[in-house]
């Protein structure tokens, strides 16, 4: 009995010491981003063929940010397009491209007036080559293996990218990627879809909100696909487990005042629900013909890292912002129960449409936190997000 009590006391003290460590900015930063955990130890991210890609199907290159950081990036060619130019691509130098604009892959992206581009913003931990990310790059172009290119980045502090991650820093990284796509690659926003997962969904929403709410020259992309998102960091801490195992504030979530106390120490807020609502509202109120949106939120019921209820909250904030009179969470849940369509593979999908755009929530029965990124439900969502160009595609 005494040994059991001692063990309980020791574990409780240890947990609160762990929480105390998390109030230290550097430790908290690592707990949120996990950028030092590369998950690609011993592998060279400048050799994408290690992950099953064909020779020079992926072109690694470097991207500079406005505040002086250098990001590592991959340009992934769709397989059908690669097949058409295989011999020419194999003849090019392999590895990191010193000048991406001189590569054939880049020229095919820039010079084709029908090319489509996915800007890919990954989740916490790892690099461009970690886990289910390489298979998910192939899923991006599954429904049009000739036209859909993908460009992904490692944020500052991830992989071989310079710097240290932060909320403002990751937004700056996303802005650098968007600027490269529009100004260097010459792809208009109407042919760009933002794809993201987990932490990347917060970056994507922040990017879309930032560009759409600019006073001068607001920018609206063709659409965005958000996989396994969270409402905001404060709500995430009550359920999130680091690497799916170590709880952050889950044990004290039943004590609201104590939870609020620890949430005061959170530096990176990532208020996705509020920014997504602000983005939708800005589109609805704008007189700009380009102010349109196509948003798909995807989550797996068996996701043990971020519970799928976060997608419910995010979807409600978006739908509420799209309605001139608003709608309560409970009212929307009743509407969803009555109108949702069952997915043949397990799960369901609901959709809300306005004159300005479309909002979709797709909940899969299976897929965990990462595997779902490579599933057909994602490929279909990416294709639907290219709604402005889909009617012209073969």
UniProtKB/TrEMBL annotation:
InterPro entries: AB_hydrolase_1 (IPR000073), AB_hydrolase_fold (IPR029058)
GO molecular function: hydrolase activity
UniProt key word Repeat: no
Domain AB hydrolase-1: start-end pairs: 118-280
Coiled-coil region: none
Keywords, sorted A to Z: Hydrolase
Protein name in the entry: Alpha/beta-hydrolase
């Amino acid at each position: 009995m005494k040994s059991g009590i001692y063990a309980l006391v020791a574990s409780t003290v240890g947990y609160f010491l762990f929480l105390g460590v998390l109030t230290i900015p550097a430790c908290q930063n690592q707990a949120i981003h996990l950028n030092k955990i590369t998950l690609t130890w011993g592998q060279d991210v400048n050799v994408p063929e290690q992950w099953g890609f064909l020779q020079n199907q992926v072109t690694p290159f470097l991207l500079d940010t406005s505040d002086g950081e250098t990001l590592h990036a991959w340009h992934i060619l769709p397989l059908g397009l690669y097949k058409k130019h295989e011999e020419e691509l194999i003849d090019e130098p392999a590895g990191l491209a010193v000048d991406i604009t001189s590569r054939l892959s880049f020229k095919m992206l820039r010079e084709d007036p029908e090319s489509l581009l996915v800007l890919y913003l990954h989740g916490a931990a790892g690099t461009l080559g970690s886990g289910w990310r390489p298979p998910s790059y192939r899923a991006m172009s599954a429904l049009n293996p000739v036209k859909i290119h993908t460009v992904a980045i490692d944020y500052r502090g991830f992989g071989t990218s310079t710097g240290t991650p932060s909320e403002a820093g990751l937004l700056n990284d996303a802005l650098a990627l968007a600027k490269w796509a529009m100004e260097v690659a010459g792809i208009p926003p109407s042919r760009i879809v933002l794809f993201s997962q987990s932490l990347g969904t917060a970056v994507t929403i922040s990017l879309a909100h930032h560009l759409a709410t600019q006073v001068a020259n607001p920018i609206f992309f063709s659409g965005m696909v958000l996989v396994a998102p969270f409402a905001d960091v404060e709500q995430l801490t009550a359920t999130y487990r680091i690497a799916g195992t170590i709880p952050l504030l889950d044990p004290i979530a039943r004590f609201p005042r104590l939870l609020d106390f620890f949430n005061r120490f959170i530096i990176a807020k990532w208020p996705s629900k509020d920014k997504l609502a602000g983005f939708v509202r800005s589109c609805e109120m704008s007189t700009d013909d380009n102010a349109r949106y196509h948003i798909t939120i995807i989550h797996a019921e068996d996701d043990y890292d971020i519970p799928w209820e976060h997608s419910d909250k995010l979807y409600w904030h978006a739908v509420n912002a799209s309605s001139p009179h608003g709608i309560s969470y409970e009212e929307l849940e009743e509407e969803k129960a009555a109108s949702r369509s069952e997915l043949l593979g397990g799960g369901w999908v609901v959709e809300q449409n306005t004159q300005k755009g479309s909002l979709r929530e797709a909940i899969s029965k299976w897929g965990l936190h990462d595997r779902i990124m490579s599933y057909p439900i994602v490929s279909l969502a990416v294709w639907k997000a290219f709604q402005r160009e889909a009617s012209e595609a073969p």
